[in-house]
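REQUEST FORM: STRUCTURE PREDICTION
Request ID: SP-0412
Submitted by: Lab K.M.
Chain count: 1
Length (residues): 304
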Amino acid sequence: MSRPQGPRRPPPPPGLLVVDKPPGMTSHDVVARVRRIMGTRKVGHAGTLDPMATGVLVLGIERATKLLGHLALDRKTYLATIVLGSSTTTDDAEGEQLTEASAEEVAAVTDEAVAAGIATLTGDIQQVPSAVSAVKVDGKRAYARVRAGEQLDLPPRPVTVYRFDLLVLRREEGRIELDAVVDCSSGTYVRALARDLGAGLGAGGHLGALRRTTVGPFALAAARTLEQLEEKPELSFSLDAAVAKAFPRRDVGTGLAKAVQYGQKVPSAGIDGTYGVFAPDGRVLALAVDEGGVARSVVVLSPA
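STATUS: Completed
RESULT:
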């Protein structure tokens, strides 16, 4: 006899979760855990974090997964610890050591040289991604090719480092540790900054620790740990609040609201980029863009 099943748990409401990712977990690990906590398969993440990194990871729940590809998460802030004196295969502390500078070579790196090296890596720069990055090469992730034994020579690409501020410099035997704030464009590899800073100083360098404090408009202040979610499984932002926070807002009357819910084109709003369309009662109806004098729905979030 089959055992009688209890009542099915209702799905959670749609919205965004801002998780403070712990070290040692992949972004996919976090998604799997949140699926169990929230009781739904419909969970996706916006922008990965390396297993060693901690901090802000934005997850979409239920219908809010449709937002993830449209979120303007093109600016991110990190607290980084950079180690000068050795380089590694992965440009971070999890890789095997490639080079090690002598104590004399490390001692020869002056505070002024560090400041000058940081200055050269600030602004609009050309950066070679880490070989074990998620950059695709001929349709395959770079890290997968490296793990298969391939030697990769990735081309540099433009990124922007808006801010690279040194907070603390610590000198230890045979190494220098820097704590820094890095505010950068999406696609910037902080471990590549550590690698290039160390290389420029002639001592080698790698990333010792990384904590992401902001992704687009979402900050650590709104983030919760997985343990906190286990105790209280609730959203960081409802679907309405998430769209209001992440996109410009357009409020429409009842007539236009109905047309938007049916996916019809409506008069343009004069707003650049993707924006949220809201009904008179404050519900978000769709994400839309202006094209040739009309507004076209990119995704309808509250269909008729």
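NOTES: The chain has a mean pLDDT of 90.
Reviewed by: T.R.
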